[in-house]
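Note to self: keep these together.
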Amino acid sequence: LDASAFHGPLTYGVDGIEGWSDVQTTLKPFLGYAIYNYSEFPTPLTLKPLVSPKVNLARQSSSPGWIVNIAVTHREYGDWFNRIGRRPEASEYLDIYDTPEPPGIDKFISLNMNRVEWGVQSPLSSDIRSTEKVNGIWEMNLDTRNLWGFFRLSLNHSGILPSEHKVVLLDRITQTVYDVLETSEIGINKENDQYSYPLTILAGEASYVDSKVEAILAEIPKTFTLAQNYPNPFNPITTIIFDLPVPSHATLTVFNLMGQEVATLKEGWMDMGTHLVTWQGRDNRGIPVSSGLYFYMLEAKNFRQVKKMLFMK
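Structure:
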């Protein structure tokens, strides 16, 4: 299979395991296979027999560089083949070594990498970059459907890193840093399937990795916080900012002096971090409210806070 034109073939549920396989070199009876076409157009596909069992696919050839494979499992479900790393043939952007994430089926686990800055709309299961650079950050998310609770991350690496270099995995929710070269398994607790669990791998010179980890941790809110709206007084638009230190089901609501709900500005599961919401002085029906004093309240987990704001026409 031409690896520059197609990714695959992959199959699902091999040996009773719920999840997608790695690239297959042998087609077996009674299995279905998926192949990803890199082109936007229908492309003829030719499967050619391997001339020797020693022949490797392009993506499996051994070369200088390093690779980290991350597998995520939860009981019989798993996502086993997710890779980051560097190799000489790869580029810093999208190429044949950056493979697409297979689609989810019913219940699923997906450790995926969104690279919209590359112009890629679909998530990736691997992000392999050039050895011309040594420092880098790989952002990824653990997404699930109809699965939650304890998940196991298994890490294994191959290749050789330059001396004095580090590879670490940062769990942004627990703010824990793991040495990838010294750690083979990590436990993650995902409360439900309504949010993405953010993970970051940083690799390169020790000073670079340490400084970037420190900078990322400094940006993560430490507590639930509801800021004063601005401007205040306002007419007709005001902005409300709040912080969530962990993914949470949160509700931001506006009330009048009688304690009656005027507008729900935001509700649902939200990612950790700083959130910005604007209110245009309208109720839930879209009708402009009258001038006066209003209250806005943030509820998330065991946190509740109320602040005042003044609408003046």
